[in-house]
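Reviewers of the previous submission asked for a worked example of the structure-prediction workflow described in the proposal, so we include one complete record here. The input consisted solely of the amino acid sequence. No template or homolog information was supplied to the procedure at any stage.
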Amino acid sequence: MGQSIDNIIDQRDDNADIEIVGKLAITRNILGEEDASSLNRNRVAGLANGGRLANFESTWVFQLLSILRPDTKRSMVDSIFDNITIVNFNYDRTVEALIPIGLSEIYGLTEQEAIECGSKLKIFHPYGQVGRLPGYSTPEGAVVPFGLLDTMQAPVIAASIRTFGESIAESDVAMIRQAIGEARNLVFLGFGFHRQNMRLLSPLSNEGQKRVFATVFDMSSPAIAEVHEMCRTLCLAGNGGLPFSIQTTPQLSAQFLKDYALPLTAPI
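From that input alone, the workflow returned the following C-alpha cells.
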C-alpha cells in the first residue's frame, strides 16, 4: 500500500477512477480538518466576542507579522508583503485565513480591508488548494468558505488539486523558481524536503548572497545532514560563486520565527 492517498494515486496511474475517488477523499479530509481546526472554532468564538481570535499569538503567522510590523506603519500596510513570497505545498487555506485576522488585530483594519491587503501576499500552491476563500480573487475556480464542504462542489474542487506525480504549469514553476532565485532569505517552515519538491524549487540562477533557515523538528541526524546537502545544492544553482549560509533548528515554526527575528531582519 502507498504511504498516502497521493502515493496511491501516483502508483495506480493506470486507473482514472482511483484518481477521482482519491482526490475526492483529499478534498473531504482537508475541508474536514479546516472545519475541525482550532482556527475555525476560535474564529467563530472570536466573532461572538468582539472579533478577537483566541491563541492567535501562538501561530507562526502572528510571529511573521510581528517581524514585519516594526517597519510598517498603518498608512503603509498595503506594502507589508512586498518582499515576501510563500510557496505552500499543502492544499488547505490556513495561511490565507489567518493573515487577514492578524492584520485586523494589529492594524485595526476592517474585514474587507484586511482581505484586500492579505490578498497582496504572493502565495503559490503548486499542487492546488481546496477552493478560493471568499473575498480573494485567486485562484480561479470555486469559492469555498474555510472548512465548508458542499458535496455539490466537491467534484469541482477535487479536479483543481494535483498530486506530486502530476505536472505543474510551466508558468507557475517559472515564477516559483524566480522567487527562490531572487530571495536573500530562504526559510523552510515545517517542510518535508521531499526530493520532487526540492527539484521544483531549484532556481536556474541565484541572485546575491543567500541565507537559508530551516526547521527540522523531530528529524534524525542523518536526515538533517541530507537537508543541509539539499539546501547547499539549491544555493549553488547558478550562483556564480556567491557566498551562502545554511542554519537548521529543531524548533517548531512559531518559536523559530520568534527566536530568529533579529537574524532574519539583519542586513546581508
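The two ends are 47 Å apart (CA to CA). We consider this example representative of the routine output the project will generate in years two and three.
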